[in-house]
Amino acid sequence: MAKLPKTFKIVPPQKCPSCGAAYLYSLEKIKKGTVICQNCGNLFLIQDPLDSDELIEDIEADLQEE
Hints:
Number of strands: 4
Strand content: 25-35%
Distance between the termini: 21 Å
Shape: elongated
Number of domains: 1
Mean pLDDT: 77
Order of helices and strands: EEEEH
Helix content: 10-25%
Radius of gyration: 12 Å
Low-confidence stretches: none
Structural class: alpha+beta
Largest sheet: 2 strands, antiparallel
């Protein structure tokens, strides 16, 4: 069984601009604000209309912990 990290944060569902598929992504899967669509493989920027600055800070903090 896969072991989950101590802090397992998930961003709101992200819709691929290429194929329209929507998925949830954990912060550990986000690289430089982008994710890879699980359906078509397209690399796209994540969108967080509520508070993208806070999301970026969370991502940077998680990356520094690694």
